[in-house]
Amino acid sequence: MPDPRTHRFRELFRRNKRVLLDYFKRRVGPENASDLLQETFVRAIRREDFDTIADPPAFLKQIAINLSRDFARRRESEAKYFTPGDAPEDVAEPAVEPDALYETEELARRLLEAIEALPPKCRQAFVMRRFEDLSHEEIAARMRISRNMVEKHLRLAMERCRAALD
User: Fold this and answer.
1) pLDDT tens-digit map of 20-66
2) Which of 37, 43, 141, 146 is least surrounded by Cβ atoms within 10 Å, i.e. has the fewest?
3) pTM for the full predicted model
4) Which phi and psi (to 5°) does residue 52 adopt?
5) CB neighbours of 116 closer than 8 A, spacing ≥ 6?
């Protein structure tokens, strides 16, 4: 017998998928719409406090808006560094010394371990800032914490990451 939460999510998906899919098609195009729709529901399901949200459809819409903004930012960044028509074989690869490669891999491993060892909220804020390129205000709004708390989380994350690399 499926649990009540699963049933609620199924019903929420059934009722909202068309509206959200249409929104994504308008904002990011039909080729990316279904992936972002799926990510919308994945993020909602991962929320431990989702059952306490007063207006789940509005919450889903806000996730969709944030995802479409993130998508647009990524496209903008890609456009800065990637020129359509540049075939991968046309791009010269710099020669990398094996020692330098090993050292870089070792630093990356230590950094990843430090990030994974961060407290959950601290890690979440760090990932949003460094990998999703969100502002402190956007992080605060998404995590429902103050901007000062975001800064505290980011300071702690940076201290621990620097310590891992020293």
Assistant:
1) 999 999 999 999 999 999 999 888 888 888 888 889 999 999 999 99
2) 146
3) 0.49
4) -95, -5
5) 123
In the numeric block, the tokens 């990316």 are attached to 32
Contact 16, 8 (CB under 8 A): no
Please name the residue that has the structure tokens 């009722």. Answer: 15
How much is the CA Rg of the chain, to the nearest whole Å? 20
| Percentage helix, strand, coil for the chain under 3-state DSSP, each rounded to 5 | 80, 0, 20
Residue 158 CB neighbour total at 10 angstroms: 13
Q: Pull the structure tokens for residue 29.
A: 């195009």
d(CA 63, CA 46): 12
What are the residues whose beta carbons fall under 8 Å from the beta carbon of 118, sequence distance 6 or more?
A: 126, 156, 157, 160
Distances (CA, A) of 45 to 6, 48, 108, 159: 9, 8, 30, 31
